[in-house]
Specification:
Rossmann fold; six-stranded parallel beta sheet; four-stranded parallel beta sheet; 43% helix; disordered C terminus; cell wall biogenesis/degradation
């Protein structure tokens, strides 16, 4: 059995990572887990997010994996180090790749970061950016209304436009040249975010950058698939704690291929994970 790349998220946002992995690594099998029932993670305590992440990791560990991506900024901020300690495969988060890409893209050292309450409160992006370049100007903004917007399916254009406008209003008076989409849900509405911020602001998708880093890591560790053919859609696995039909609809729209979502109940004691 071919080992898969495990990807986990609080909901459908991690599908932005999946889409980029499909583009860059079409011969790799994906096992995806979206915790849509308990989404969003942003307003939750670090302890809850850590517990939920470990529960998902425990579930995914049933499947042969060559690498794991925590495609949730909030979970990356609070649980990445712990998960890495318990795994002997590469475990990637989404914060450091996004920070590095933003520093490469910025023209005047003025970077904005939007994310969930949990991600912004953790200051994980601020630390990652300042670790590389201390003199950067960084303006962070929590946008708690955007994840529920994406999870609802993004069907009402007027609602999307108005919600994005209200969420980003505090940044309109700040002169930015680059902005990190610090939540993997946000690329799903990047068109409207880009229109709101204007053409002079470069948007950085942490999802795209993470997929690029994953490709590099697998290559360096000689873990790339030896298959000569693209993995057919039916061989990828998608699990959700929420409604499979809702998840499947968003996933098929975003990925452009058939998706069979499977419902999962997470009732595994955390203390039994990854022993």
């Amino acid at each position: 059995m071919q080992s898969a790349i495990g990807i986990l998220d609080s909901g459908v946002g991690g599908l932005t990572v999946v889409k980029e992995v499909f583009r860059q690594l079409p011969k790799e099998k994906i096992v995806y887990f979206g915790d849509t029932k308990r989404c969003p993670y942003g307003p939750r305590s670090p302890e809850q997010v850590r517990q939920f992440t470990l529960e998902i990791v425990c579930f995914l560990s049933r499947y042969p994996m060559k690498a794991l991506v925590i495609a949730c900024n909030t979970a990356t901020a609070v649980a990445l180090k712990e998960v890495r300690r318990q795994f002997d495969i590469p475990v990637l988060g989404v914060i450091e790749p996004g920070a590095r890409a933003a520093i490469k893209a910025t023209r005047h050292g003025r970077i904005g970061v939007i994310g969930t309450n949990g991600t912004i409160k953790s200051e994980a992006y601020l630390r990652a950016l300042k670790k590389i370049e201390r003199d950067l100007f960084v303006e962070s903004l929590a946008c708690p209304s955007l994840v529920p917007l994406v999870e609802s399916g993004c069907g009402n254009i007027n609602r999307i436009r108005e919600t994005v406008h209200q969420a980003l209003a505090p940044l309109q008076k700040v002169r930015l040249d680059t902005m990190i989409l610090g939540c993997t849900h946000y690329p799903l509405i990047s068109t409207w975010i880009g229109r709101e911020m204007g053409d002079d602001v470069t948007l950085i998708s942490s999802a795209e950058e993470t997929a690029r880093e994953l490709s590099t890591v697998l290559h360096d560790k000689k873990l790339l698939s030896l298959s000569e053919v693209t993995i057919p859609p039916e061989e990828h696995r998608y699990f959700t704690t929420g409604k499979p039909d809702s998840f499947q609809e968003i996933a098929e729209c975003w990925l452009g291929q058939p998706v069979q979502a499977e419902h999962v109940r997470l009732d595994i004691p955390v203390e039994n994970t990854l022993r």
